[in-house]
User: Which sequence fits this backbone?
């Protein structure tokens, strides 16, 4: 057994190695955070054939084993001091890894209290395993008594990067014993506040346009009522709970966006919010990957139609009419005219009709405004009030948001897109007068329809001046659709990253041109 000084040395090495390994593991924490701290989803992503991060960790492990082994052999004449040089090589290699991939994620890690707790738990697990491994190797060398074993003793520690995902997953499972009950308490408290509040509670769900309809409705309603709406895409039980517990419900109307990726998600949200009025924006194959079938998607979105006292249905949610009492049934957006500056259309609400203009882009913007107007009408706004308010609407960030830079028009539609929204965005781009560029990685979360829908997207891109496809996940299907529809291959380029696409645009765009950023895949893709 090692003496006290040797134990302290092993502990010091373990602290140093654990610290750099946790730094190397930050991309894993980022993906876990984006997955809602679901270690199952993180592991499925990590084990995918094309996961580059897994390959990087395996390469790092190989490099560490080789470097530490070579340093041990080269400086074996120094005796125990050779271990210090091996440790420096280990730390240096891990440090280079951190520097090389410090921006591996597009969405940076957010150091919430939950993440800090998870980091501490993971650190303790890695330290315990590292200390145990070092102690075991020390004892093994003592038993073997071989000089070669002493020289190569630290080399097996280089395998730890390949095991990081297991440590992170284990820590997440351990912390769930604390985190899940805590989340339930937060949700229960929010549910109590919602039940006690006298405000009108509105649930908004659908395969697309949830955030847009919520934000447009909030802008319109705020001209007459006190309104609170869940921010950004806070559409999970814990997201809504954090908002309600933090902001309170001192308002006339509360708009709650309700997201779903699995069967049962909407029912849980309805049990929490208990909406008196519901909106189902529409249904499409979005999240088919997790729902498994269109029947499951329809049934899940229909949970809101069955839970709310009345419901407003978008056009593609019409099959749910038999499940609920319909409010604002007669609404539409017709005669839609689009441009790069505005969208003009005829808004109809019941017996009222008027031509309106909104500083929003795309055919779907008109349809979202009509749906929002129907909701506002059901909540007490007059048609005249709505017609006066629509021209003042502001775009939702990253939903076909228009910007100007150096005389170039930028259409930011980088939020996760659906097939219909993608077609509408391309239609707006084609209205541009100058050269038209599109940057896209394709569409995801469409299950068995993914290849078909990406080929259809490729066909829609024919006629543009430059098509830049990003990544490797869906771009082959987009390229095939583009080629099969007669697209000019010389106008199509595939690049590995968004940064590479931006560099290409910098050398290609001129004053008067327009570029559409269509979809921005989550890091797990």
Assistant:
């Amino acid at each position: 057994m090692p003496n006290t000084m040797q134990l302290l040395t092993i502990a010091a090495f373990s602290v140093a190695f654990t610290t750099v390994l946790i730094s190397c593991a930050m991309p894993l924490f980022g993906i876990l955070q984006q997955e809602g701290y679901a270690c199952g989803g993180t592991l499925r992503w990590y084990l995918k054939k094309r996961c580059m991060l897994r390959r990087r960790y395996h390469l790092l492990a190989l490099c560490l084993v080789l470097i530490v082994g070579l340093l041990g052999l080269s400086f074996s004449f120094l005796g125990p001091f050779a271990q210090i040089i091996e440790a420096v090589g280990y730390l240096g290699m891990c440090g280079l890894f951190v520097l090389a991939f410090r921006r591996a994620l597009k969405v940076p890690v957010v150091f919430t209290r939950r993440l800090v707790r998870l980091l501490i738990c993971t650190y303790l697990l890695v330290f315990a395993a590292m200390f145990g491994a070092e102690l075991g190797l020390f004892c093994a060398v003592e038993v073997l008594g071989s000089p070669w074993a002493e020289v190569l003793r630290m080399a097996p520690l280089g395998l730890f990067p390949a095991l990081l995902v297991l440590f992170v997953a284990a820590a997440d499972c351990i912390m769930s014993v604390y985190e899940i009950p805590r989340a339930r308490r937060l949700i229960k408290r929010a549910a109590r506040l919602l039940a006690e509040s006298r405000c009108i509670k509105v649930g908004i769900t659908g395969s697309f346009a949830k955030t847009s309809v919520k934000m447009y409705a909030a802008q319109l309603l705020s001209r007459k009522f006190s309104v609170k709406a869940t921010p950004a895409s806070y559409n999970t039980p814990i997201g809504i709970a954090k908002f309600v517990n933090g902001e309170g419900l001192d308002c006339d109307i509360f708009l709650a966006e309700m997201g779903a990726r699995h069967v049962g998600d909407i029912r849980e949200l309805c049990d929490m919010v208990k909406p008196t009025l519901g909106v189902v924006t529409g249904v499409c194959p979005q999240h088919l990957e997790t729902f498994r079938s269109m029947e499951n998607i329809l049934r899940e979105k229909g949970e809101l139609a069955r839970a709310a006292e009345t419901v407003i249905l978008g056009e593609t949610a019409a099959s749910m009419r038999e499940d609920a009492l319909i409010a604002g049934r007669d609404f539409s957006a017709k005669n839609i005219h689009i441009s790069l500056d505005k969208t003009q259309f005829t808004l109809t609400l019941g017996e009222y009709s008027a031509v309106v203009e909104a500083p929003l882009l795309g055919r779907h913007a008109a349809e979202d405004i009509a749906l929002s107007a129907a909701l506002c009408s059901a909540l007490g706004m007059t048609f005249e009030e709505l017609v006066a308010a629509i021209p003042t609407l502001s775009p939702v960030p990253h939903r076909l948001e228009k910007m100007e830079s150096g005389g170039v028009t930028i259409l930011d539609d980088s939020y996760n897109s659906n097939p219909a929204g993608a077609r509408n965005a391309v239609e707006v781009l084609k209205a541009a007068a100058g050269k038209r560029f599109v940057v896209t990685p394709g569409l995801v979360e469409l299950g068995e329809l993914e290849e078909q829908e990406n080929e259809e997207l490729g066909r829609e891109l024919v006629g543009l001046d430059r098509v830049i496809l990003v990544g490797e996940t869906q771009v082959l299907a987009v390229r095939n659709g583009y080629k099969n529809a007669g697209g000019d291959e010389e106008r199509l380029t595939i690049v590995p990253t968004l940064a590479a696409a931006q560099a290409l645009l910098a050398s290609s765009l001129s004053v008067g041109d327009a570029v559409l950023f269509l979809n921005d895949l989550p890091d797990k893709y």
Notes: The first strand starts at residue 200 and ends at 205. The chain has a mean pLDDT of 87. The chain has three domains: 4-179, 197-392, 401-518.
